[in-house]
Amino acid sequence: MPPCPESAPPEVINYDSAAALRALLEERGLGMRKKFGQNFLINPGIRKRLVDALEIGAGERVWEVGPGLGAMTKELLDRGMNVRAFEIDPGFIGLLKELFIEKPGFTLVEGDVLKTWHQADQAEAPAPYLLGNLPYNIGAVLLANFIEEGRFFKRMIVTVQKEVARRMAAKPGGSDYSSFSVLIGSAYKVSPLMVIGASSFYPAPRVDSQGIRLDLRTDMDGRARPPLFYPLVRQLFSSRRKTIKNNLQSFVSSRIMKGDDPLDIVLPALEQCGIKPEERAENLTVEQFAELAEKVFFLTGKRGEECHDLR
Ligand code: SAM
């Protein structure tokens, strides 16, 4: 059926009903794309609680990732917030423009948010808040990308698959604790919010989701992410069964002169941090990773200087 732009005036979209959304999509000739993780939140109570969790009011600037048909966007704009929304689906983009482009405080960034956010950030002072019912295929990648690129939000409220939520909130010692947990924990205090059952979405996904609140940490600023922090964390988790010493040895080997012994750096670094060589990455806290990265950076740098002096 050809798209019919006049068929659904914004006022009458019923975001709470799967049947109404199905009819709207059909009427407009909008297909659902699995690869874009398109599941609409049709539970109005949960939409409201997620926006409430931002704890901000009129005039605040918020990024929204994946507005879809605009259910959360409407909630944000109705509360007087300035919304910059990032959407990839051309069909949804057309509808979002009809719905909101005239509204004060609304801007739409078209395309893949992983590619568009840098430029959007340069266009205005960085927005301090982010809300997103994140597409399952890019949720974790996007959050990691923001952190590694140094784009921090004062607060983010995101919905992710429950399994991703568990990894975000995981503490040392558990099987869910991963390099992603350390990355998130290095920048944010993580507070799990409500579990969102599949029936709160249209179409219903196969797994439950969870709301997560992320508040920027202010207690570790700077110290939390010394140079080498991200690659070191990833390397130390790369072979979970290996000891810290072995994983760190591989990491250091690629950063020193050929012929130098990586253990000359690995062992003093571990000792100075009070970490046993046979320890495993899954038992280290964010603070220990940060301290270790700092020591390794310092010692590899020193080694570089010594080599330079000798030449
Ligand atoms: N916010 C809506 C809601 O809660 O009902 C829709 C959420 S749906 C889970 C995810 C949305 O993200 C879809 O609209 C999808 O088209 C969009 N999306 C998927 N991948 C994207 C990407 N790489 N960049 C921007 N938007 C994307």
Description:
The protein has a seven-stranded mixed sheet with strand order 4-3-2-5-6-9-7. It has twelve helices and nine strands. Residues 1-6 and 305-311 have low confidence and may be disordered. Helix 8 (179-187) packs antiparallel against helix 9 (229-238) and helix 9 (229-238) crosses helix 10. The longest helix has 25 residues, at 286-310. It starts with 17 loop residues before the first helix and ends with a helix. The chain has 311 residues and is α/β, with parallel strands linked by helices. S-adenosylmethionine is lined by residues 36-41, 66-68, 71-72, 86-89, 92, 112-114, 133, 135, 138.
Keywords:
disordered N terminus, alpha/beta, 7-stranded mixed β-sheet, 43% helix, 311 residues, 16% strand, binds S-adenosylmethionine, elongated, two-stranded antiparallel ribbon
Compact overview of the structure:
With 311 residues, the protein is α/β, with parallel strands linked by helices. The chain contains twelve helices and nine strands. It is 43% helix and 16% strand.
What's the structural blueprint in terms of helices and strands?
Elements: H1 18-28, E1 40-41, H2 44-52, E2 61-65, H3 71-78, E3 82-87, H4 90-100, E4 106-110, H5 113-123, E5 129-133, H6 139-148, E6 155-161, H7 162-169, H8 179-187, E7 188-196, E8 201-202, E9 209-216, H9 229-238, H10 244-253, H11 263-273, H12 286-310
Bound molecules: S-adenosylmethionine (SAM).
Residues 36-41, 66-68, 71-72, 86-89, 92, 112-114, 133, 135, 138 line the site of S-adenosylmethionine.
